[in-house]
Amino acid sequence: MMKYMQRMGKSLMLPVAALPAAAILMGIGYWIDPTGWGANNIIAAFMLKAGGALIDNMGILFAIGIGVGMSDDGDGTAGLAALVSWLIITTLLSSGSVAMFMGLADPTKAPVAFSKIANQFIGIVAGLIASHSYNRFKNVRLPDTLAFFSGKRSVAIVTALFSLLAAAILFFAWPPIYNGLVTFGESIISLGPVGAGIYGFLNRLLIPFGLHHTVNSVFWFDVAGINDLGKFWNPALGGIKGQTGMYMTGFFPVMMFGLPGAALAMYMTAKSNKKKIAYGLLLSAALSSFFTGVTEPLEFAFMFMAPALYFVHAVLTGIFVGIAAALPVRAGFNFSAGLVDFILSAKSPMAMNLWILLVLGAIAFVVYFAIFYFMIKKFDFRTPGREDDDTDAELRVELKNDDFTKMAEIILEGIGGRENVTSLENCITRLRFEIKDQAVVDEKKIKSTGVPGIIRPGKNSLQVIVGTKVQFVADELQKLL
Fold this sequence. Notes:
This protein has 481 residues and is mostly helical. Helix content is 58%, strand content 5%.
């Protein structure tokens, strides 16, 4: 089950990767017309509407992303099937349709849950139906008279049938599911900044399991009516000045300043003969966190080597998210809480006093550095540059000019060769292998390429943390496989 959820989390990276486009379009639009929201400038209106088209249709993007990502071979047929499933479910369970099924003359009398049916949760359901139908029926053979519908052409038809069944089940199941999500969200909201802090803590704590997207969907998107991200960028959806953005704001000081402070502490505590190696790894990971908000390369550098440090990081994230929620400051992101989104969100109508985040960020940098430095020294954690001497610089391979081909060759050799690999996927920062035998894996050889870390989440699963350039390495590995 955990492996399935992690794969689903990886699949969500495909639609999430579309959000930076929305951030750029809407960010530019608000910079051009920060007060009229497009009413005073046609170019600003054009940009805002274009970006809003993505934000307002995240459910569809989730459906297609899950459909393609969870399919065996990433074929576009699964994406088309996901769209078929989305259209059927959201049409059958719209307020108007439900009112008709229940014999109600007024669609507004239908259960309120069905007014929120076109959301990311339903998108995920539609994507899962489509990917299952594709994986199961893509090679089906029909009699000659129906041969045209054999193979992949049958997928959309099968998906439609399964979607009818899903809609019938959701007719009864969606109201209690929706009410449960709303109750959970309202309980956190009622706690104010403390609730925001609890959410921030859970957000980081669930990352090792790939389950953070589950809790994010409740607060950032429109699954339970909170929609913090959507309302921040499109106030017409119901944004409230001073409130909207409270579940995103506190991540900026952590990602832009706190984690780089932790990186500096890890570099300062590295062994003298390994500082050069640690410098390259930690600098690139810290810059990734600061500029883009992509924190996985840095977090995975110590997550499994020093889990106590990661728990402290989760606690600190919760504290800073809670503090930011209590202060008169609001910022938002479309992709992640890095410098790019910080600048783009500055002119959003919901943005407030962004300079406070810079002060909070300076504090976060000092706090992270001090705590990490003390704990690493006190407990002798094996953070980057503090590994045992049998993994010293002599084993390190010098990869020049981003030689991804060479890197892929070394990683494949370290995994035991292509005969030991049954499948390969990648997410935003990780290579995800399914292998036959863990015993033949040579972690030292894999780490000689400079990767931050290696995870063995299951008997036949292996993940190699590469960083934001993982796609180039994955492409080379696919060629070798």
